[in-house]
Write a structure and sequence with these properties.
This protein is of the alpha+beta class. The protein is built from two helices and 20 strands. It has a domain of 134 residues. It is found in: Bacterial flagellum basal body.
Length: 267
């Protein structure tokens, strides 16, 4: 009976964490470049149940020997293994702001491949983002909306001296008669990237291969790829599953109460 407590409780915890991921997705439905998290559920290892007993051997001394009859497997619960971002392209919308840049995926050589803007976090480390909602800081550097430097192809902050600049579809910033190539990075497996907050991803990425195609649209932003209606439906499903496990847990609790206070009572 105690095993049933643990199994039902693990189901409730898993659905609660699934609900939290869906809630976070809906909260970021309007965040530029946001990639929806997908919770992956996995069951704990199953236990093989056996019926233990004994069998008599019809001999003079009536020998008994143990026997084990397999009953079947018993699930031991479920848990959220990890959160995997969905890197599908979000909708592209026109903003008319020159510092807004949208990465538009073309043909990727790898099915799970994707491209990112290269930025520098507060610790000076290289990170990646799909949020092109950029601006220019007081020193004239191109930065993200969280104040992180946007890097060029050489890994240096980009000096624009203001908001009047042009970005070519190939990713070159034209300012003061110079072409500064944006730092666009490519990874063959975006699923290996980890979210760090502030729209940043951490992972291994390199130069864009020759057979990968993309364009950059100035004055546009890539929207979130969260499907709000689908997320709401999944939230309702997670809630119903939570309720089901809750009722199972309550039934086990009532059975345990009877076993302790009624069956086990000494009169």
């Amino acid at each position: 009976m105690l095993r049933g407590f643990y199994t039902a409780a693990s189901g409730m915890i898993a659905q609660q964490r699934h609900q939290e991921a869906l809630s976070n997705n809906i909260a970021n439905a309007n965040t530029p470049g946001y990639k929806a998290d997908q919770a992956t559920l996995r069951s704990f290892p199953e236990m093989l149940m056996h019926q233990m007993g004994s069998k008599n051997i019809p001999t003079q001394h009536n020998i008994k020997y143990p026997v084990s009859n397999p009953i079947g497997s018993l699930s031991t619960g479920v848990y959220v293994q990890e959160y995997v971002p969905n890197f599908a392209q979000g909708d592209i919308r026109d903003t008319g702001i020159t510092t807004d840049l949208a990465l538009v995926n073309g043909n990727m050589p790898d099915e799970t491949g994707s491209i990112f803007f290269t930025v520098q976090n507060d610790a000076g480390e290289v990170r990646y983002t799909r949020n092109g909602n950029f601006t220019v800081d007081g020193q004239g550097y191109l930065v993200t909306n969280h104040g992180h430097y946007v890097l060029d192809q050489a890994g240096n902050p980009i000096q624009t001296d203001g908001m009047e600049f042009t970005v070519t579809p190939e990713g070159a910033i034209q300012v003061n008669g110079q072409n500064i190539p944006l730092g666009i990075a490519y990874t063959a497996n975006a699923n290996d990237f980890e979210k760090e907050g502030n729209d940043l991803f951490n992972g291994e990425a390199g130069a864009v291969p020759a057979d990968a195609t993309f364009t950059i649209q100035q004055g546009f932003l890539e929207g979130s790829n969260v499907d709000s209606m689908q997320s709401m439906t999944k939230m309702m499903e997670a809630y119903r599953m939570f309720e089901t496990n809750q009722r199972v847990l309550k039934a086990y609790d009532e059975s345990m109460d009877k076993a302790v206070n009624e069956i086990g009572r000494i009169s």
